[in-house]
Amino acid sequence: MASKCCILGYGAAAKTDSRMYAFNRTAKEIQYGWSDILARVSVIMTSYNKPEYVGKSIESILKQTLTDFELLLMDDNSNKKTKKVIGSYLNDKRIKYYCSNVTSISERAEKIRYAVQINKALSMATGQYISYATDDNIYRPQRLEKMVNTLESNPEIKIVYSGSKVLSLDKNGEVKKTMHRMAKSKTWLAPCTIDHCSIMHRADILPTIYEKWNSYWDEDPQFYFIGDARFFWRLNHFWPFHPINEVLDDNYITKKSLHGQMTCAKKNRLIRLLPEQRTCKELRDYLRNLGGDK
């Protein structure tokens, strides 16, 4: 049974509507009440039950040196504590807030929930460029500016990625391990080597992806653990990823993160309900067979 949607646009009061919210990219209009003002960048943030981190993630985007953006904040019906934190930022007119009505664990296991949320956001995005964030990822202040400048200086490039600092936290929120993902070379083998919070792509590539696969991100739960890698697999059919060799985001791995849940000795009910998971190796091997190691 389809869930209804809770939309908060530009700090307005919540409203519930089960209609499809559509973006007409030709006419450049947002239907059903969202702004018709176009943004240079659409930042899509997914959120679920991380009240300790989501505020810092939102602030890192709102404090970007490039200010011409919209933030599509896609919350998957988080707990009250998380919604309260999010609510404190909704007076900023750059934020468009979507809250799903998904409640059961079984429903969460039917599809990759963050992919569902991203697909909804992509259908509504108005930006010339698309960027991604999560509720435990922190953008560095010049991230959007540097990525946009790279794309605008190189019109032949469709996708860029940056370096990223990964910080694994213990149960007390203390850093127990740090690593750096560097961005040194153009790659046709992006799956599982780059995080989706470290990329930006042109919006005009999206119709090509949709035409081939009838969606942008794959919602198949077989790819729950590697949903961004699956999206990159699709992108690498057509375009390479170009590097910006500078760390532009900090990615926190916590006990609540999907990666943290995957490595936990005691699997929670969501993880137990998922089908057998597909692997990074098969995605990368497939691309190699396409000539993806060029």
**Which structural class is indicated by helix and strand composition?**
alpha/beta
Total strands: the figure is: 13
Assign the CATH class: Alpha Beta
Oligomer: single chain
Largest sheet: 11 strands, mixed
**Over all CA atoms, what is the radius of gyration?**
18 Å
Q: Could you please say which CATH topology applies here?
A: Spore Coat Polysaccharide Biosynthesis Protein SpsA, Chain A
Output the number of helix runs. Answer: 10
Order of helical and strand elements: EEEEEHEHEHHEEHEEEHHEHHH
Distance between the termini: 45 Å
Strand content: 25-35%
CATH architecture classification: Alpha-Beta Complex
> Can you identify the CATH superfamily?
Spore Coat Polysaccharide Biosynthesis Protein SpsA, Chain A
Which runs of at least 5 residues are low in confidence (pLDDT < 50)? 1-5, 8-35
Description:
The protein is α/β, with parallel strands linked by helices and 294 residues long. It has ten helices and 13 strands. The protein has helices spanning 54-62, 80-87, 105-110, 113-124, 143-153, 206-213, 227-235, 258-263, 269-273, 280-289; strands at residues 5-9, 15-17, 23-24, 29-30, 41-47, 69-75, 95-100, 129-134, 137-139, 159-169, 175-181, 199-202, 242-253. The strands form two sheets. Strands 1, 2, 5, 6, 7, 8, 9, 10, 11, 12 and 13 form an eleven-stranded mixed sheet that branches. The chain is globular. It starts with a strand and ends in a 5-residue tail after the last helix.
